[in-house]
Design brief:
Helix content: 40-55%
Strand content: 5-15%
Structural class: mainly alpha
Shape: elongated
Low-confidence stretches: none
Strand order of the largest sheet: 1-2
């Protein structure tokens, strides 16, 4: 009889702490989500919402070695027959 009561008490404690843990994790997620949304709204209010675009550069394929090099600032790859 006593072992059954101890087992029941243990199961109830595990369930109670499990529910508390899940509730606490949910509250922390909500707080983080609110903080992230607030930071995004503050960044937009300051005009920092859009990031500047990264400049892309065209590449051309070297006829000799097959490597792709920048079209505007191509340099020699070191081979004697390199066109750059």
């Amino acid at each position: 009889m006593v072992p059954k009561l101890l087992l029941l008490a243990f199961i109830l404690l595990v369930a109670w702490y499990g529910v508390r843990f899940v509730t606490r994790v949910g509250q922390m997620r909500q707080a983080m989500r609110r903080a992230t949304e607030q930071a995004a709204m503050n960044a937009q209010a300051r005009g920092q919402g859009a990031r500047p675009a990264i400049a892309a550069e065209d590449l051309v394929k070297c006829r000799t070695c097959g490597a792709f090099v920048p079209a505007k600032s191509a340099t020699s790859c070191g081979r004697a027959d390199c066109p750059y």
